[in-house]
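Sat 14:20. Reprocessing the chain from the morning session after the first attempt stalled halfway. Input below, unchanged.
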Amino acid sequence: MRQLSVFLWQRGLWLVFLELTALRFAEFFSLTQGPVILTVLWALGWSMVALGFLVHLPVRALAALSVLVIVLHNLADPRASASGKSFSSILRSAASGWLAWGSA
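Finished this time. Tokens:
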């Protein structure tokens, strides 16, 4: 189990590093200029890091977490809440600020 966890951590962090260096350089021909665009490799890398943690959880805890995700996923429904903003619109507006934080 430890070997799998280490593999997931290393591969995940490697993908994040590639996203921030190689893909950024390929897109903008610079590591410092242009917006920081975090795309698929970034998401896959951090997902692998999270899986590196999750492999250590007991099966019952994973099952409970899985059921919670399935049951609560409708919180991201685009229907508006009482405040007039949906959870998904708040996430999207926050993500758009994070994903383009080097663009000015």
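Residues 59-104 form one domain.
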